[in-house]
Amino acid sequence: MNDFIAARSQMALSLAFHIIFSCISMVMPFFMAIAHYKYLKSGDESYKGLTKAWSKGVAILFATGAVSGTMLSFELGLLFPKFMDHAGPIFGMPFSLEGTAFFIEAIALGFFLYGWDKFNKWFHWFCGLLVGLMGVASAILVLAANAWMNAPSGFNYINGQYINIDPWKAMFNAAWFEQALHMTIAAFAATGFAVAGLHAVMILRKKNVSFHQKAFKIAAIVAVIAALLEPLSGDRSAKDVAKRQPAKLAAMEAHFHTEPYTPFVIGGIPDVKNETIHYAIKVPGVLSFLVYSDFKTPVEGLDKIPKEDWPPVPIVHYAFQTMIFFGVLMMLIAVIYISSLTWKKNWKDKNWIYKMFIYAVPIGFIAIEAGWTVTEVGRQPWIIYGIMRTKDAVTPMPGLQYSFYLFSGVFVSLGAVIIMLLKRQIKMVPKLYDTTDPNYSPKK
Amino acid sequence: MLYIVIGFLWLSICLYLLFGGADFGAGIVELLTFNKRDKIEVRQIMDSTMGPVWEANHMWLIIFVVIMFVGFPQMYSLMSTYNHIPLILMLLGIIARGTSYTFRHYDVINDNWEKLYSKIFIYASFLTPLFLGIVAGSAVSGSINTHPTNFLEGYVYSWLTPFNISVGIFTSACCAYLAAIYAIKDAAIESATQLVLIRKSKQMMLFVILSAILVFAVGMYSHLPIINWIYKSPIGTISVLLSVLCMCLVYFSLVKNKFNFIRFLAASQIGLFLVAGTEGHFPYLIYLKDGSSMSLLKDHGADKTINCLAWALLIGSCLILPFLIYLIIAFSRKKKATTH
C-alpha cells in the first residue's frame, strides 16, 4: 500500500465511521424529544423510561461521534496539509459556525442528561430537542463545506494563486443545498429503520412488548416519512450533479458514449478498457428525462471528458447502484408499513412486518455509505473539483500505511465495544427503563 | 479584526487547558493515586464534577483547530506535517479517553469491562496532555526542521527533544493539579474524600513545581532563551509574579481549609503562566530550526476570511457563553443543594 492510497483509505475509513455515529446522534434526540413530549403531555411513565433509555444511547453515540469528528478535523491537516493550506481560509467558514452549533449541542446534552427533575420540565425538554436541532445544523454546515469541494466557489484561481477569497460565497456554493437536503433526510431514514428494527427484535422476542412497541412506532413513522421524501431530494441531487460534475454522473451510470435518448442503466459490469458495460438493463431515454425532463437530449458521457479526469468508474457505478437499490427497498417498506396503518389494518402487529424492519436495520446505513462513496470517489481525481488534484494534496510524511492500520484497529475495536454497550443497555430495559416490568428498579 | 481572532485563539487554548485539561487531570490524579480506597473516592468525586460539563470542555480544542486552519492555514499545515506523529498519538489519546470515559459512565452493567475502560481512561488521560505539551513545545522551541535530509530529522527530531518532553510533562502536571483543586469543593466538608483530595492537591502542586523546574533546567541546557521569553517584558514578569502569588494563596487555602476562591486561584495561576509564556513570543507562534519564524500578524489567511471568522466567533460566543456559564453555575448550585 503506498502512502497516497493509505492516506485516502484512512480518510475514507474515518468518514465512514464518523457518518454512522453522527447520523444516529443527530436523529435520535428527535425520537427522544417525541417520547419525552408524550410523557410530559400524558404523564405515561413508560414514555419517561423510553426517553431515558434513548438518551443513554444518544450519550454513548454522541461521544463516539464527537471524538471521531475531532479526529477528522485533525486528519484533514495530517493527511492532506496542502489542501488545508489553500482551502482552509476559503471553505473554513461553515466549520467555524459548526463549532458553535456543536458546542451548543454539547451544552444542551449536559443539561438534558443531568437535568431530570432539576429544571423547569419544558426547559429540560427543549434542551433535548436542542441537541437534535443543533445536530442537524452541524450536519448542514459540514455538508456545505464538503459541497464546496464538489462545487468550489468564493475565490478566483489565477496562476496557481487563490485570490479574491469570499468565505460566504464559498459556503453557499452551488451544491450545498442539494447535498445537505439529501444527506439529512437519509440520516433520518437510516436511523429510523435501524432503531425501529432493534425494537422489533425485542417485540418478536416478547420482551417488554408494550415498551418496545411505543419505541418502534415513533422510529418507524419517522423512517417511512424520510424514506418517501428521499427520492425527491435524490432527483434534485442528480440534476445538480449532471450540471456541475458530468464526469461523476457519467461514472455513476457507467455512461461511456454521449448519445440521444440516453438510457438509465440498472446493474451491469462496467468494462473501462473497452468503454462499455456488460449485462446491464438499459431503459432508453430515462436518464435524459431525469436530467433534462425530456427523453431526447443527450447526457454528456465519459467520451467528452479527458481520460485522466475520469473517476474510478466501476466503484462509483456499483456504489450508485447499491444506493439506489437500498433506497427503493426502503421506499417499498415505507409503503407497506403505511398500508398497515391505514387501509390494511389487519397487517398491523403481524410478525412479518416486524421481521421486515429487522432485515432493514443496516440498509439505510449501507445506502448512506454507498452514497458517500459516489460523492467522494466520484469527485476523483480532484480534491477541489477542477482545481487541485488529490495526489497533490497529500502529506510528504512517509509510512502512512502504519497509521492506517492503527486507525483501522481503533475503529474496529470501538465499533465492537459500542455494539456491546448498546446490547447491554437493551438487556437492562426491564430493570432500568420499563416502569411496567416487575423487575423495575431504576437506581444504578 | 485580526486581534479578535488571535484573542479567541489564545482564549480557546487557555480554556481548553483550564477546563478540558482538568478533565485529563481527573484521570492523571486517578493514575497517581496508589491507595485503592483513595482511588475509589477520587474517582467518584471526579465523575460527578466532570459529568455534566465534560462534553462541552472538549469543544475548546475543536474551536482552536478550526481557528488555526481557517485563520492561519500555513501554520496549521506546517504543524500537521512535521508534528504528524505526536498529533496522531494525541488523537489516539483523545479517542481512547473520551470513549472509555463515556463507556464506564454509561455502561449499565458493572463487571470486568469496567476495569479495562478505567485503565484505558487513566493512561490516555496522562498521554494526551503529554503530547499536547510536546506539540506546543515544538512550536516555540525551534525544533521543527522543514528541510530534513532524512525521516528522523523531519518527522521525529522535530518534536522529540528533551525540552519538548519536559513541556509535555509540565502540561500533564498542570492538568492534574487543576483537577485535584477543582474537585475539593465538590466533596462534603471535612469528609474522608475531601482529605484525600487536599493531600492530592498538595502532591500535584509539587508535581507542577518540579516539572516547571525541569522545563527551565532543560531549556537552559538546550540553550533556549527561556528566561527571555518570560522576563523580556513587564507583562510577562508581572504575570509570573502573580502566578506565584496565586500558588502561595492556593497553598494557604489548602492548609487553612478555606476553599472559597481556590478554583479561581488555581485557574488564575495556570492562566497567568500561559500569559507569560505566550506574551514573550507574541506575535510569533512558530519558530523553525532554520531560524525563521511564523507570525500571527503576518502569516494569516485572506483579510476577508479573518473578518468573517471574527464575526463568526463573536456571534458564536454570544450564543455559547451565557448557556455554558448557566450550565456550570446551575450544576454547581444543584450539587451544593444536594451535598448539604
From TrEMBL, chain A:
The lineage of its organism: Bacteria, Pseudomonadati, Bacteroidota, Chitinophagia, Chitinophagales. Belongs to the cytochrome ubiquinol oxidase subunit 1 family. PANTHER family: CYTOCHROME BD MENAQUINOL OXIDASE SUBUNIT I-RELATED, CYTOCHROME D UBIQUINOL OXIDASE. Pfam families: Cyt_bd_oxida_I. It is found in: Cell membrane. GO terms for biological process: aerobic electron transport chain. Coiled coil: none annotated. The chain crosses the membrane at residues 12-37, 58-80, 100-116, 123-149, 180-204, 216-234, 318-340, 352-372, 402-422. Keywords: Cell membrane, Electron transport, Heme, Iron, Membrane, Metal-binding, Transmembrane, Transmembrane helix, Transport. GO terms for molecular function: electron transfer activity; heme binding; metal ion binding; oxidoreductase activity, acting on diphenols and related substances as donors, oxygen as acceptor. It is a multi-pass membrane protein. One of its GO terms (cellular component) is cytochrome complex. This is Cytochrome ubiquinol oxidase subunit I. It comes from Rhizosphaericola mali. It comes from the Bacteria.
From TrEMBL, chain B:
InterPro entries: Cyt-d_oxidase_su2. It is a multi-pass membrane protein. The chain crosses the membrane at residues 6-32, 53-76, 82-99, 120-143, 163-184, 205-224, 230-252, 264-288, 308-331. One of its GO terms (molecular function) is electron transfer activity. It is found in: Cell membrane. Signal peptide: none annotated. Belongs to the cytochrome ubiquinol oxidase subunit 2 family. This is Cytochrome d ubiquinol oxidase subunit II. It comes from Rhizosphaericola mali.
